[in-house]
Amino acid sequence: MTTTRPPLPEFITVQTTTDSPEEAERLAQAAVERRLAACVQISEIRSHFRWAEPGGEAQVGNEREYRLDLKTTVSAVPALHEFIEREHGYAEPEIIMLPIIGGSEGYLTWVRSETDSAAPTTPSGPA
């Protein structure tokens, strides 16, 4: 049996979490400066999870975290993924990719232009 997948959307929101507002700000600023994301929103959240350190027993915990929602294009995702893995403070950072299946044309055009490394850097744009 042959299965087909729908084509990937052009626009993606990548989510990751971190344990401090300072790291969240650092990651957000660097991702935008490097044109890996057009916009990053930071939200304070509470995470509940089960986690085991290597060789240890799994424990249930909950912590305050900071979620970053990075708006980008599918073509920028590999570099953004590598950036998060390299720069993140967690040994195993959460990296979740959510498709953006639609949006305002002007906003999505802006996301495309801000994550295109050939585009000129401009200080203005929607947040």
Write out key terms for the chains shown.
4 strands; 27% helix; alpha+beta; 127 residues; single chain; Alpha-Beta Plaits; 4-stranded antiparallel β-sheet; disordered C terminus; 3 helices
Please describe the topology of this protein.
Layout: E1 11-18, H1 21-33, E2 39-51, E3 59-73, H2 77-87, E4 96-100, H3 105-114
Antiparallel strand pairs: 1-3, 1-4, 2-3
Give a structural overview.
With 127 residues, the chain is an alpha+beta fold. The chain has one domain: Alpha-Beta Plaits (2-Layer Sandwich). It is 27% helix and 32% strand. It contains three helices and four strands. Strands 2-3-1-4 form a four-stranded antiparallel β-sheet. The longest helix is centred in the N-terminal third of the chain and has 13 residues, at 21-33.
User: What's the helical proportion of residues?
Assistant: 25-40%
Shape: globular
Report the strand count: 4
CATH architecture: 2-Layer Sandwich
Class computed from helices, strands and strand pairing: alpha+beta
Main beta sheet: strand number and arrangement? 4 strands, antiparallel
Topology as H/E string? EHEEHEH
Uncertain runs are: 118-127
Rg calc: 16 Å
What's the short version?
The protein is of the alpha+beta class and 127 residues long. 27% of the residues lie in helices and 32% in strands.
